[in-house]
Protein: Acyl-coenzyme A oxidase
Organism: Apostasia shenzhenica
Amino acid sequence: MEEVDHLAHERRTANFDVDAMKVVWAGSRRAFEIADRVGRLVASDPEFRKDNRTSLGRKDLFTNTLRKAAHAWKRINELSLTEEEASMFRFFVDEPAYVDLHWGMFIPAIKGQGTDEQQKKWLSMAYKMQIIGCYAQTELGHGSNVQGLETTSTYDPKSDEFVIHSPTLTSSKWWPGGLGKVSTHAVVYARLITDGKDYGVHGFIVQLRSLDDHSPLPGITIGDIGTKFGNGAYNTMDNGVLRFDHVRIPRDQMLMRLSQVTREGKCIQSDVPRQLVYGTMVFVRQAIVSDASKALSKAVCIAARYSAIRRQFGSQDGGPEIQVLDYKTQQNRLFPLLASAYAFRFVGEWLKWLYRDVTQRLQAGDFATLPEVHACTAGLKSLTTSVTADGIEECRKLCGGHGYLCSSGLPELFAVYVPACTYEGDNIVLLLQVARFLMKTVSQLGSGKKPTGTAAYIGKAEYLLQCRCNVQRAEDWLNPSVILEAFEARALRLAVNCAENISKASNAEEGFTDLSADLLEAAVAHCELIIVSKFIAKVQQEMEGHGVKEQLQALCNIYALSLLHNHLGDFLATSSINSKQAALANEQLRSLYSQVRPNVVALVDAFNYTDHYLSSVLGRYDGNVYPKLYEEAWKDPLNESVIPDGYHEYIRPLLRQQLRVSRL
Amino acid sequence: MEEVDHLAHERRTANFDVDAMKVVWAGSRRAFEIADRVGRLVASDPEFRKDNRTSLGRKDLFTNTLRKAAHAWKRINELSLTEEEASMFRFFVDEPAYVDLHWGMFIPAIKGQGTDEQQKKWLSMAYKMQIIGCYAQTELGHGSNVQGLETTSTYDPKSDEFVIHSPTLTSSKWWPGGLGKVSTHAVVYARLITDGKDYGVHGFIVQLRSLDDHSPLPGITIGDIGTKFGNGAYNTMDNGVLRFDHVRIPRDQMLMRLSQVTREGKCIQSDVPRQLVYGTMVFVRQAIVSDASKALSKAVCIAARYSAIRRQFGSQDGGPEIQVLDYKTQQNRLFPLLASAYAFRFVGEWLKWLYRDVTQRLQAGDFATLPEVHACTAGLKSLTTSVTADGIEECRKLCGGHGYLCSSGLPELFAVYVPACTYEGDNIVLLLQVARFLMKTVSQLGSGKKPTGTAAYIGKAEYLLQCRCNVQRAEDWLNPSVILEAFEARALRLAVNCAENISKASNAEEGFTDLSADLLEAAVAHCELIIVSKFIAKVQQEMEGHGVKEQLQALCNIYALSLLHNHLGDFLATSSINSKQAALANEQLRSLYSQVRPNVVALVDAFNYTDHYLSSVLGRYDGNVYPKLYEEAWKDPLNESVIPDGYHEYIRPLLRQQLRVSRL
Ligand SMILES: Cc1cc2nc3c(=O)[nH]c(=O)nc-3n(C[C@H](O)[C@H](O)[C@H](O)COP(=O)(O)OP(=O)(O)OC[C@H]3O[C@@H](n4cnc5c(N)ncnc54)[C@H](O)[C@@H]3O)c2cc1C
Ligand SMILES: Cc1cc2nc3c(=O)[nH]c(=O)nc-3n(C[C@H](O)[C@H](O)[C@H](O)COP(=O)(O)OP(=O)(O)OC[C@H]3O[C@@H](n4cnc5c(N)ncnc54)[C@H](O)[C@@H]3O)c2cc1C
């Protein structure tokens, strides 16, 4: 069969070097090559097919995931993949599974909080998957407030053991991924009680299931917490419930890097600084930001390709209709998301650098930048995941009716993605932490303490409070320093306004609480400034490939100017710009859309996603949408028979007026 | 077992008459009584249980729906329900099914477009469900652009028949609900071709399946289009695909109220005015707006009750933690949605009146208000469904992690609701129609033609272009006329700005296209003004019951001021208010939140939803969330066995390092 590329025309009109852009997107030529190779490996292996995922029942779906996870582990070993490649491999398998928590939370927790000895013992087994672990923190009654966890771990000096117990129903562990059906072990967070005193929440390694026959150990009640949002999606994961009835573990299974309990039951602090733990947090959050760019780019890729195929209205003289991608409203919804995908990609890359930087500093005992880094990563986690969740759904709507079919790939992408707004810190709770940092930084301005890093602009408060935007023509908005200053002025002025209003309250804590809705907006402004500035910095780097820089410049401007438009209230209320300038920004935005339009399909091709990874009929590389949609439909279980089950009981009697009616 | 009301305290603190509010919400005492009675009937009938819906596979789910639909029909007959009660009954059964299209689209299409004779013949069968019909308009290649449909209906004067045919793959009918597995008949939209000429799209009644054995008639290929978004959700519906291979139907099955084809094959227009068809459209859209208020209120009810139960942080001296409902950020997300639910309810009620009004006018041959009515209903459909879809997801996020469980009810509510943004007119396409109307109205301002109804304010252009908001204290924002004027000024000025910018373009059509993103904002402003003004009008009516009016006043102000805050850019850029006034509006909003807080649970109780209808563990009337969540979990199929299927194949060999690795 001849293969036709229905998007060939779109690809021809692009005026930049797509291959070079692929490298920029991947981060480096090496990263590109690994991703490309591993992506193809997974895509070409029939064991990893996922097109049937949304129609499987929970049990089949889950067994299927177990099968894939085992096969992936086998392949990773057969191919002797490096750690980086293995993690890339799991990424392309693209199915939430217990292994995510094993590698992503269980192992890092032991690395971060275990002593050298503990690491040696447990990690060597974990690396070989001789044990499978999960991360059991959240309880039925407590998620965000970790300090409120109720599970207890009481030291019994008689037997040199901890007794782990769930004293109430709400203390049941609830949500940990991999817990429900698979994990043999968990890092369990529980209140350490020794010598009659409560020392707060600590981590403990607890074996949950027998390594012989997988049955739960005595005193342990364990199960899955039930169906979650969407078909397929996160239902491949066994998020679990766990109750302890006085379960005993040896003393040396408390993670003792930071605090120790002695044989006698004394709790002592080690001399390892507690701050070291934050390194792990920065690592986890940079991974989440990087995932956000992947999920959003996936959705954008589907919507962009389909929008180039889909035609609606405006046929002249019987010619083809208009591609919906040509409608300005479609562009105004899609292009800022495309720009955001790139923006998140670059800020994610920068966060990787930040992680290395902060790790070095921590090791050198320099904790000065921690509050700023904490605020920055918390804020970026919150902002990028929120925008991505909403953006995926917008992409689905951009596909009209067909986006509602599972075969579009978008419903499952949305359902599997949204919990990122909740786990690893509820997005609102995180933004409030950013706001606290901002208020503190502003309040210290007089004290001579100079804000650094992503907060450095706050040090320019005096200037930023009185500067005026001097945009006079639409093109002036193409100047990065003009954009940067407008975003800095907005962020700073919102923060200072909040600080002033708080200072009017009878007490600062009450003021903070009362104004917390405004504070969220200040926090968002701070985070958007970070992303804009990192995007600008990226675009100012040397870059290979014809037209690559120009496209990224255009996307960077679209990102900034569309934000400006969406938050116009902020910019105008703080007089960071005036309404004439706002209108000019809009005008510039429109012309940027025209500039990007011929490149859109190539700009999503640059993500280099395989059709397997996208798993979307609408997003197919070749754009051959309609025959494939038609083909997919017939695979639905309902189409196994022409006459539906239930016809004889429920349709025929109705049509024939033979439903037995017992008039009351 | 003793029943404890965990929300009793919340209910005690309410300072208004909940029973009176229930009547206001329902629309009248009579409406309340019907809804209350029918709601309980459905809830108490075990045949209608829906708690297992999200874990059924597609086939079981579908058969289950057939069973419920038949049982509902039986009960409706047994109880001799009126048409109004029957439709209420189906609403409380709360499961999308072929009957929705039969009653909601098939019958109205024949009523609106069939001749008296056709109505007599077909409706008598349809009312008794001796035939089951669907509405087959959309095709694989065409949805929004109805005029572009490709299915043909060619008149053959030899046999006095139409030949219905699908000439291309993209002409396959695609999406019609009830089509895939159930309907015996359809109103099929196809291009009428007679005498060698294409007369555009018309409706035809086509039998699809044998009334004897349900098999598709010759020339008809028919099936389900596959899984859609979410577990349960819209997968209870057999949205279908349909292809015709030269299928013949008698001439009198063309719906001939407006156009007729004679025995000789001449196409003639009847003297019935085409505008009459718009009555049906107004009816369908008012129903969608009313559904929006129901879906949003359902989500808000769940989130509000759970937020009063959920506690997180801030325990002092071992006392209980803070209810998350007390956090200002939670209030700032939830309360505007609560206010929107009420706002949509009242504007929906007003639309019912509008429908009656427009029907009378049409019958009297008065078509003058049609363009305004069309713009108003299109806009309100678009706005209320978009806000509701986003609002449901926000409510889900307001429930933290637990909102992600299907047992919260929110994932399914979202998945089943979102297509309302797409069907019956894509929301963006509809807003563009509103924008067209606005531009036309503005352009005719000089001509002496006075805008009426919801567009009357445009007639005050001269005043609204120069008026100034004179709010000086936060309380000034409580004055309805101040709010109204600010919203009128904003809407008018945005529209006039657009009109001016369009007039600068070289041609008006191009100008409209280029500025369409701005035009959407003007359209939204117009629609929000309508809702605000109808809410204000409602609150100004006489109302019984202690405190009822005060609560609605507060909600009305919350609705308006939160919109003002969310669209601050509009208000400031058009100088409809200044930034000082914006800050005062925010201040007023905060104090309104405090005023409403003690009443929130009672305000959602006023919806009078049964636990069956809510089908949410988090939204239970008694607030007994945790034990029930725990109980629900164990019902998951994965918990049928302690050791998961697949353990022996995929987990044990992995733990034991026995995955057969074939080193390459
Ligand atoms: C798919 C998924 C996977 C998960 N995996 C794991 C896992 O592997 N291991 C594990 O231990 N946990 C896991 N979790 C749990 C997750 O970490 C928690 O759900 C998360 O921390 C949010 O906490 P919560 O659910 O208690 O929300 P809550 O804190 O109860 O949030 C409810 C509402 O209250 C608001 N709120 C809470 N506190 C405040 C405040 N101080 N100020 C203002 N508003 C506030 C929130 O914004 C939210 O709107 C997972 C959750 C999900 C959904
Ligand atoms: C659950 C469900 C049930 C349905 N039930 C039925 C049914 O019973 N019977 C039936 O006949 N149909 C039914 N439909 C089909 C439905 O009516 C169409 O999906 C709807 O009309 C949208 O059309 P579309 O899918 O072609 O979207 P498209 O028009 O292709 O939309 C794709 C994108 O293009 C944009 N766009 C399109 N035109 C323009 C324009 N002029 N300007 C700017 N942007 C534009 C849209 O905004 C959207 O972003 C159903 C659909 C769904 C999802």
In short: The domain at 278-605 of chain A is CATH 1.20.140.10 (Butyryl-CoA Dehydrogenase, subunit A; domain 3). Residues 233 and 416 of chain A are 5 Å apart (CA to CA). Chain A touches chain B through 147 residues (CB under 8 Å).
